[in-house]
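Predict the assembly for these two chains.
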Amino acid sequence: MKDQTSYKDIWIGSEDLGREEKFIELATQEMPDASIASTLAQGGSFASASTGRRDFLKYLGFSIGAATIAASCEIPVKKAIPFVTKPDDLVPGIANYYASTIAQGGDYCSVLVKTREGRPIKIEGNSLSGITGGGTSARAQAAVLSLYDTHRLKSPQIKNSEGQFEAASWQQIDDLVSSTISPTSKIAIVSHTMLSPTEKQVVKDFQTKYSNTTVAVYDASSSAAILRANQLMYGVSMIPGYHFDKAKVIVSVQADFLGTWISPIQFARQYAAGRKIEDPKDAKMSRHIQIESYMSLSGTNADNRIRIKPSEIGAVLARIYNKIASAKGGSTVSAPELSQSIAASVDKTANELLSASGQSLLVSGSNNVAEQAMVCAINHLLGNEGKTVDIEQYSLQRQGDEKSVSNLMTSMNSGQVDALIILGANPVFELPYGAAFAEAMGKVGLTISTAGAMNETAAACRAIAPSHHMLESWGDAEPVRGHISMIQPTIAPLFDTRQRETSLLKWIGDDNTLLITDQPYLEYLKKNWASHVSTQAAWNELLHDGVFTYTPESSGASYTDNLASVASKISKPGGGTEITFMETVAIGTGLDANNPWLQEMTDPVTRCAWGNYLALPVHFDGTRKFIAHENLSDGDLAEVTIGDQTLKVPVVKQFGQTPDSFALALGYGRTVTGRAGINVGVNVHPWLATDVDGLTQYYASGVTVSGKKGKEEYFSCVQYHHTMGVTAEDAKTKQTINADEAATVFMTYGLVDQGFQGSLVNRTIIRKSHLDHVEAFSHDLAEERHHHQELNKQQVYPGHDDVYARGHQWGMHVDLNACIGCGACTVACMAENNVPVVGKREVSRHHEMAWLRIDRYFYGDVDNPSAVYQPMMCQHCNNAPCENVCPVNATNHSAEGLNQMAYNRCVGTRYCANNCPYKVRRFNWLDYNAADLWPINEADLGLESDSDDIPYGADNLTRMVLNPDVTVRSRGVIEKCSFCVQRIQEGKLRAKTEERLLRDADVKTACQTACPTGAITFGDSNNAEGELSKKLASPLNYLVLEEVNTRSAVNYKARVINKAEGVDA
Amino acid sequence: MKDDLTGPALGGAQERWSEYPQEDLYNWIRNSQAMIAAGHPRAVEMWNKYKPTVMTSFPGFTDEDIASVLLFIDEQYNKVPAGPVVAAGGGATAPQDQPGKYIYFFLFAILAVVVSVLSRVIYNLRAMVAAEDGVDIPKQKSLLQMLTSKGVVGFLIFALVVFGGYTTVNNGVSFGRQQGYAPEQPVKFSHATHAGVQGIDCQYCHDGARRSKHASIPAANTCMNCHKAIEKGSTYGTQELTKIFASIGYDPSTDKYVENYDQLSNEEIKAIYTKWIGDSYMKDNELTSLDRKGERTVSEQWEGIESALTNDLKENIAGPIEWTRIHMLPDHVYFNHSQHVNIGKLACQQCHGKVEEMDLMYQYAPLSMGWCINCHRETEVKFTGNDYYNTYKQYHDAIAKGERTKVTVEDIGGLECQKCHY
């Protein structure tokens, strides 16, 4: 589209594309800010920055003295404590798996919980689930850490006369409730979507006893408009079941269905099924057009993107509707005008949809009833009903309507509510009128929250009846009609908590015989499922599988064209600057904001961690510079003003962001939560507007963004960390420069046509093609690889090939077409391998420890680029450059092709990290686990309060999440991806014990099992029958940096897109 | 054998049935319920005493089978109880002084004499030369002068540095190793009695060894499998075994587990077990009340129980026995028992020594990395018979061709870092 684009093919950010000095500096700094002296100087812990001779002597004397004392000590006596009575199903050292479900709000994931010695330590997907199919999300993976959250409430709490919470007993809580409420009391229950049919039954029972009980269900990320629109058009309040796998053309208008919208794990799985290329000769894949106002995860994966402002959603949907209605014989509606280029693109999108009638799907994240009614009408007219849109087995993952809460608030303010019970939700933080809600709570006689940890709403309550964590609870979930998923406890409650359903049962009280049992809610649950599960054996089987399906009765949904009654309510495009409030994959609406794994996981799109950052559109000046609003650059602070409220936020330049618009994430800026989430980022919820129907709108217009108002202190964007940059010496100046830069200078700007990828000169990092040319591309790729392999015939260490042909040879295959960048694997890797959380300050200094990162590259049009995600972990090269530079042989090669890392041998020279072309080795700069005795070695987290400034995960409660099969690394050693060697060894042992050959199912890496789309395949490449060998046969495979002859063990399958001409805008 | 449990003691059954025909006893063993139904007086008496426990029926037993079982019981019952097995002495014998050492001392002495004689000769010769030349005869150096001369002092410092370095390195290398470590345990448990005399299989108690990385110390309920019947030890009587009962809450006086035992106070627990110890003492000594020695025995044994089951961190007597751990691998070492026991088919004794002869358990092997590695170098993999190893086709081919006689653990990667460190 733009001729300038051709000079650089693939890039990672605007500084990269513009070859700015800052980028070159960052990319070439291998280990920036390295010396301990500079750390001390910055922290001000020592008087001087440098270590003088006297200091040196002091340290030397101290070390020798300490060593002498240590050496003369006797070995401490250790105890070995066996069970008194050992449970039959528990063998120390052997993991047990329990099927359960992570259901929170409307989010759903069927899982297997791995427990060791009774402690849950890892979440795996449950492949028996028809919804998630064994896939997980980052949030599901991180759920196990929130079990061990030090911020969890240890007992019930009641406020004293001074308004301070004091620990109470359950008897006191129950007495408080029973003394306040009577069967005629006006009671209100506030909850997020309840996925559990049994919980709903408990609430119904509660309403039977207390007949004046109203239930207000809302969702922090509302889909109420879809429910209402379907009520209008189909007569049923539902979220239809979508089938992205059956659609040839997918159009999403502002719905991030791969990242955050309704059921991302399920949708990602379906989506990838339609995007994988099995055979280049007969290549087929769906076409995905994303129309949106910010760069979402779905947008980065799309074939075509149309950039609109958030207020233009209505106009876009109306235009598509009219186009389709006129083709299919429906009545048209009046549509607001769109700019010429967008209108043309939208028309082409409509044509795409029409050309795939019955095999297309349009979804929208809009929260406007009229717009969602149009979505219903479009899919109906296209004949998608019953094909890609299921109105029978529809989704139950969003059931909330925020109007119910605002109505409730009115009653609360007029004193018509005697008691308010908050079931798990956090309305004070999540609702735009949260502060007003908190004020209204003051007018209610009894306010009680069942939050497991203190949050903004619980803090405003009079009493807290803390509920169990999901992994301590019984329960069930019905995410889609007919699909039931069970929740069973995997550990006895850690604290004096009580499941919220049990609390409700207690408060219903008196005649309930279940209450005298040990676990009342378990009995209730069993009773509720008695019709489906009659015997103990059937119950056991159900808990074993975790899921079952039944055929629900007909939903009774049938289409009536009621669009005309609401069509005029669609949003009207505004003129000014607008801002979109979106969710990030990790934090969502902020329920898990106190989870350090999720905070440290980098956002796939912006690649920032620990906070929300204002996405700025970038504008190409036609020569070299990429200019953002007010000349702001990454990490600058700017003031955002909407109405009379101003917030100071850090910014990032974001490709693909609609011009004259911004985006900022929800869920940050929590004020009452644990130390990992408190005051991280800014809270934008109060900025959310409400439309005429009382529905929350996730954008605002009339926003002003100031120029630079300072610099973010610890700007945690990893975009330019660990880039695969190469340095060279400039011939004239003798200075070290980026080799890319040198080549660019040599070729002069704008004239170079090809060969510039990422930060490297003509190197194999990303290989990509278009669906129409994929066969020719596979031949080109073969030729290129052949060329490399010819050059690589010369080896430093020849004669090892027969070693690698013997026994196992571990390898991996990553399908770049299936990888959507969701980051579930990165969190799974942290959980499996005890990777420490380092905190915001350390991330800002390039010290993040993640073994597996997902690189995001842009390519194509500079204003509206396509993106490709590349999971990058240790490539386990057979010619590993890291191995032969280690002076102590701490990293070396195994006969099974593993690049081994022996932590106890490592002396921390970091030569290996320097020499690794993939930049996957991580150095323990500091003692991130508080493993040694010297606090000076611990990381400074840069938190406001120093009192709890110990590393995340250094306390004994959080340490319970550690995987006992993996060493916790100490300060001063290098670590990196081990291909989950503990799982390899376990799988081999299983095969040996059962005296059979190893099967694929024996060894699966943590990243592989976490992936919702099956992008990662791990296995033994010497096993010709294995799944890996089949995947390795694809002609679309390539090795990253094959030309440098590292002989890596990770094959990447090239990215192929199905871009339509002229649809982008 | 000697005591009544869920049913009558096995020993002496024949005497008790002697007033009835032998046939009755045989029928009773084959099918007790039929006899009860038939109303045999002895059978009904038994049933009333032990119901509802039903004795297992063995309808397939021939008279010959039953006769041999009874003969075995008789032999065991009437056997003179064996005295405690005398400890084998383990590795306690002092190392024999080797004759070699004396030779070195002897040589050193001879050399010292030779040196002094020679130096005297040299001095005399020099003196003679000097006398001939008419120069003053240099005064002979005193021993002190010689010892404080530069050469000697220099040599001594050098020797000290070498010796010090050698010792430091040696101690550094073995730092944290505890071969031979034999701490006193809270319970005087004797492997020699259990594994040696009684011949109990190691894996009966250490059942983790065949299925997990940990062999695990058995839970107290494993002890109770046998010690519900054997309530007094062969060596220590009630002194040691009562510790196990006090840990798990088994009352040997009533042959029942105490209900809600973990909620009892230490005083209540004391009452239960001092009664048991006292009663046993009286029974053994055929007394009707405790004498002074008996009282002392009770209080001593109770103190022993208390100190074995409580410590600074554990106030309650109820709860697990805290053994002192002997075998310790550092955290960065992965070791899996089941790999070695199941796949490698190693005998426990290979690494743990002759445990069946140890009264007091001690660490037999150094458990050093060199020790592991050496074994991996030498040990042959059980290559045939386990289909897993068909993965190594090349080795199988080489063996078939005769190019290779065996495959060691080393050959399949047993020396690689990440076999044990990850």
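Residues 892 and 900 of chain A are 5 Å apart (CA to CA). Residues 1-7, 33-49, 738-761 of chain A have pLDDT under 50 and may be disordered.
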